[in-house]
Amino acid sequence: MSSQSGSSSSERRQSVASQSGRRMSTSSRRSSVVSNGRRSSLMSTSSTDSSGQSKSRRVSVSMKQLRSLVTGSGKRIQTEQGAIQVERAEWGINTVTIQGKEPISLREKFSDWPEPGRIIKMKGHAASDEQKANMLAPSLPLEPYSAELMHRPQPAEEILKLEFTKLGRGRGTFKSYDEEITVITDDVKTWLVHEYKNYVVPSSYHHMMYSNEGYVVRWEYHLEEYDGFVRKHKSKRCAYYFWQGLECEINMKGATALMTVELDKEKGPQIRVVQNREPPSFLNLFNGKLVVRTDKRQMLGKEPNLGRRKFPTETEMFVVRGECVEEGHLHQIEPRVGSLRSRGCFIVVAPSQTVYVWLGSKSTPHAREVAQKAGNEMEDNFISDNFRVVVVHESKEPRAFVSCLGGHEDFSSLISSIDSHIYTPRLFRFDSTSGKFVADEVLCKHRVPDRDTQFPFIQDDLYGASQPALFLLDAKYQLWLWQGWFETAEDSEKVTGSARQTFARNKKVAMETVNSYVEEMMLAENPKVFPIEAGYEPLDFITLFPFWTEREDVKRFGNKAIAEKGAGGRRTSINTAYKMLTRTEYTLEELQVEPKPEGVDPSRLEDYLSEEEFMKVFEMHREEFKSLVKWKQVVLKQRKKLY
User: Fold this and answer.
1) Helix (H, G, I), strand (E, B) or coil at 253
2) Which of 62, 446, 461, 546 qualifies as a FRET site for 115, CA 20 to 30 Å off?
């Protein structure tokens, strides 16, 4: 009986195959099913009849037949619905991939591919799994962050805590829990880690560090506690800092960390310090004399020069940072007039053995005090027999000062402004990686209570973040919404079809948050807010940072229209940018260009056409188009280059 049934079935299949005689092509869309007790796959096929009309149907094929199609070994398949003649390209690339390890060539085909890889996952941390689940779940509407929370006062200061004891800024007397504690430094010892060796730096010159080197600093101190009746002298303690320059090679950074462990005989706390982010407890060890140089250390034969440098034959320039004389420190920058800032103070070392202390017209009194002390102590850094210090005020520079910096140059001077320009800027980073839109404030480590910090941030706070990033910089008189950059697929595998769409959604919510932030200020006249892009920052934005380096590598990822105009920075208001980002209608030509307009969902480009243009393009109403099966919609969109 079964034999007859099988024969009859075979005859029917042959009959269908002989009558069909049509050439069919398979699509990639299929789903696995179980049929007649064996695993098979549903595969969509299309054919063209004698009148030229395209027809489709779904057929069931076995997994073995499907494998033969994929490998190219089979071109004709016999199915229960009939024979299928398959047309394939002469060659193709077949790849097996694993979930979670998909290459960019696959991910970029999907507009809504999640990106859980951007989450930093900690082993054994429950929140990490929850964050990953949020990333994989369908995206929910993001809510703007609370402007009221953003306006909360900053934490007063950076407090050091070692061995269950609060040490404040590492000096002086302060309240720690219920006791009054005085921190007294007994000794500071510094080692230079150079080519996997360590050299003890003489205490007279240990304040001079180089950005391509690593150092280990041993801090020996003791505490005196006073409970209101008795002053107690506690035993000595020690802590080890290991400082790593921004240009220090990765191998040298590892050697510095290992050297710290080797030198720490007391098994005390070990603290990593990164250039430009030094905590106040570290700065206090050098009593306002720390100098960070970006050139290279002079050598004495094959050994590093650990003493004074020869006086420079070319001009050197340093920006003054720190809000009190004990924590003042200098950072070497490019010597030119354009590096000056009206809100800051600078040290210029001329080859004539003259040290100029330049005081900006809008600098704070305590910054000027730090600068003058730093200028007087520059003599300890150089071998000189005719050293002199000259204090220079903005707009009253002698000709020799301008000449040693290469001549006059615009630097966005504020001397003619009637505003004081003495304030502490605030910086917020917007992020939605956790599934919620949040604004995290970036804090300056060496901030001092009740004192304005004119330059609390550096360029690396923006450019060093995971890109593309969104930051709000509140500069009191103006607000800036800074936008990072997307690397191209050729340079990075982080960009997927959903990445730009997700970033546009974050940018939209960020603009809504910024508008609420401005309204919360409750000022008579709200400050202007400008969106800007990385690589094309305007001059008045750049001067809010103590030093700035033009990044040509970032410019090539930016807005091409801005690059062609050659103008630095786009001065579009945030309201205008918001309207452009939330547009609901585009022309066919605008939707066909690459890249797509910002904020447009590439998976539904047809929805952005007006009713009239939709009818003109597809020759049917929108409701009729939506009623078509999915593959027919895709074919129509492909013909109009909307897919």
Assistant:
1) helix
2) 461
- Record the pTM: 0.72
Count of beta carbons in the 10 Å neighbourhood of residue 401: 18
Nearest of 413, 620, 574, 515 to residue 147 by alpha carbon: 515
| Least confident range of 354-368, 571-585, 623-637 | 571-585
Paired residues of 345 in beta bridges: 359
Q: How far apart are CA 36 and CA 62, in angstroms?
A: 11
Burial 223-253 (b: 16+ CB within 10 A, else e): beeeeeeeeeeeeebbbbbbbbbeebeeebb
Q: What is the token pair recorded at 204? A: 């007279």
- Among candidates 325, 327, 370, which has minimal Cα distance to 345? 370
User: Position of tokens 């007790």?
Assistant: 37
Q: Which residue has the tokens 């002086």?
A: 172
Beta strand pairing call for 528-533 and 478-483:
parallel
Q: What is the pLDDT of residue 459?
A: 92
559 in Cβ contact with 484 (< 8 Å): no
pLDDT band at 25 (very low <50, low <70, confident <90, very high): very low
According to the model, what pLDDT value does residue 86 have? Answer: 57
Q: Is the pLDDT of residue 187 over 70?
A: yes
Q: Which residues pair with 217 in a beta bridge?
A: 190, 241
d(CA 353, CA 312): 8
Asked whether the predicted pLDDT for residue 310 surpasses 80, the reply is no
Of 525, 554, 398, which is closest to residue 465 (Cα–Cα)?
554
Residue 264 CA: distances (Å) to CA of 85, 219, 254, 257: 76, 11, 16, 11
Could you write out the DSSP letters of every residue in 317-336?
EEEEE-SSGGG-EEEEE--S
What band does 473 get if pLDDT is binned at 50, 70 and 90?
Answer: very high
- Alpha-helix runs per DSSP H in 459-527: 459-463, 497-521
Q: Tell me the C-alpha distance between 118 and 430, whole Å.
A: 14
Max Cα–Cα distance, the chain, nearest Å: 116
Burial class (CB in 10 A: 0-12, 13-18, 19+), 481: buried
DSSP characters over 539-572? HHHHTTSS-----HHHHTTS-HHHHHHT-SS---
* Helical spans, DSSP H, in 284-416: 365-376, 399-404
Q: What is the pLDDT of residue 370?
A: 92
Report the 10 Å Cβ neighbour count for 513. Answer: 25
C-alpha span between 441 and 443 (Å, rounded): 6
**Strand ranges (E), 195-323:** 197-201, 208-210, 214-226, 231-244, 270-274, 290-293, 299-300, 303-304, 309-310, 316-321
* DSSP bridge partners of 160: 168
Q: Tell how strand 290-293 and strand 329-333 pair up.
A: parallel
